[in-house]
Each structure stands twice: as C-alpha cells, then as structure tokens.
Amino acid sequence: MTALILVAAMVVPLSGYVYVAFAQDSAVAQTAPPSDPWAEEVNPRSEVWREGRQATEGTSVIKGTGANVLMQSGGENFRQIRMGPVATYLPWYLAVMIGAVALFYIISGGGEKLESTSGKRVPRWSGFDIALHWFVAILFLVLAITGLSLLFGRAVLIPLLGPEGFAAWALASKNIHNYGGAFFTVGIVVMIVAWMRYNIPDGTDVKWLLKGGAFGKHLPAGRMNGGEKAWFWVNVGAGIIVCATGIMMINPQIFETRELFQWNLIIHAVVAILWLGASFGHMYMATLGAPGSMDAMTKGHVSSEWAKVHHDLWYDEVKDQEFDAEEGRGTSPGAGASTSSA
C-alpha cells in the first residue's frame, strides 16, 4: 500500500504536464496554416489586379470613353500586334522594297541613257503644279521620318540617343507629325482635285501595263502613262486612308471604344508604311530610272527627246509649243501632273 501511494505521488503530478502539452498541441493544430500556405490566404494586391482585368465598369469622376474601366484587356492584344507583326514585318518590307529598286537598277544596267542633242524643250508643268508637288513631297518625307521615329524609335533610337534624347525627339516628332499632317491633308485634297483629270485610265494605259511598260519598254503613252496613273491612284487611296485615320487619332473622342482607336492606329501605320515603300519606286524612276524626268518638276519643261521616248502621243499634241533651251522659256501655264515621274 505504501508503495502504491509513492508511485501515485510521482505519476499524478506528471499527468498535469502531459495534459498541458496535449492541450497546447490541440491549440496549435487548430490554428496552424494548412500544408499549402497559399491555399486559403489571398494576396489583396492580386485580388485587385484580377478584378481590374475583368474590364468591368466602375465609377469615375472623369468623363469620357472608357473612363470607368480601370484596365482594358484589349490593350494587351493591341500591344502584341504593334510589337509583333507591325514591328517585325513592316521594316522588312521597307528593306525588301529598297533591295528591289537596287536590283532593278543593276539589272537595267544603271538606268536609262538618254541624251538631249537637239536642245529643244517642250513645256510640261506649271509653277502651281511644281509648288504643289514639292509641298506634298516634302511633307510626305517629314511625316515618314517622324512617324517611323514614333513607331520604332524605342527599339532603334534609344540606343543611339539615350532615353532623354529620344524623349525630346519623340515629343518634337509628335508635334511635327500632328501639325504637318494637317497641311499634308490639305495638299492631298488639292492634288486629287487638280490632277485627277490627267489620270483617268484608258485603253492605252492597259496596253502599256500589259506589255511591260513599267519594266523599261517604251510604248505609246499620252500625257501620263499607265504606271504614272497607277501611282496617282495609289496616292489617292493611301492618302485618303492615312489622312482620315490621322485626323481621327488627333480627335480620339469620336471613337465609341478604345478598341476602335487602337485598330485605327494600326491601319494608319500599316497603310502609311506600305505607301512609303511604294514611293521608293517613284523616287527611283524620277531620278536614276528615267533621267530627265526631274526637269519636269524643277524646270517645268523637258527635252523633246525625253517627251518622244516616254510620252510620244502627248508630244504630238504639244510639239507646236517646242522651244529652244537657250531661249529660257518659263513653265507653261495650266499644266497638271501626278506625283509620279513626270
């Protein structure tokens, strides 16, 4: 009995420690996080991001299209198109067009060789047409440079100019592009009105194109040949699209959704670059491809030899106006042109 009391005296106090330890283990089991600490705990920032990505409309004191939407998911789709196909393929297109012009120059043996031996000239374009041509042409090049700077500048110009230098150039490019685009639009409209009558296609133009007039063959042609008329209508179509989309981008409030504005920007950029690439062919023909063509848009008249070779049907109509180069006759009034090699 005495031994039993001694054993109980030692065991009973120890049982208190056992109980306390068991109670603590139970409490820890009830409050401890699950094996996966992220299974139930939610990051408030992630929750806000997920809610914002739903593009649901909320409440905003700012009024305007899409002002009540915190995040527009379509913006990521736009970014992928702009930084993907647009930024990848369009520069290659410009490179291919430059390469094609260079290859054509090499294959043709360095351009056409045409000398003026008679010294006779015929009037071709008026002072108004010359001024209009260069007004549009210079603005076209300025807008091309500033537009390409805004489209590809982050990848191309930042390594050259640095972030601060590019920021200053981008701001200047944006302002020049916006204001210059307004004057360019006016020039395009005047060009269409003034020169359309000279660029209505006819059967002679179809034959000129089908028989390879664009590849160095000298075929019968009137005031404007088939290639020049085709270039004029490229200017009309591309000019209307680029100018219209440009005006809409300067006035974004006209769009009902941001997606429409983004697609408008893509169309503007793609058509403008396609237009720029096509212009390389025009520049080549006006300089190296058909020597003497530039005289038409600088002096207003061309050599009789040039007129007979490139526009024989037209020469027959104006040969009575032929004059000697030494007389220094000015430009003829009332002439019109397309922006092709005149």
UniProtKB/TrEMBL annotation:
Positions of transmembrane segments: 89-107, 128-145, 179-198, 230-251, 263-285
Topological relation to the membrane, as annotated: Multi-pass membrane protein
Example of a GO biological process term: respiratory electron transport chain
GO CC list: formate dehydrogenase complex; plasma membrane
Protein origin, superkingdom: Bacteria
Known cofactor(s): heme
Compartmental location: Cell membrane
Keywords: Cell membrane, Electron transport, Heme, Iron, Membrane, Metal-binding, Signal, Transmembrane, Transmembrane helix, Transport
Pfam families in the record: Ni_hydr_CYTB (PF01292)
Annotated ranges, domain Cytochrome b561 bacterial/Ni-hydrogenase: 124-300
Name of the protein described by the UniProt record: Formate dehydrogenase subunit gamma
Taxonomic lineage: Bacteria, Pseudomonadati, Pseudomonadota, Gammaproteobacteria, Chromatiales
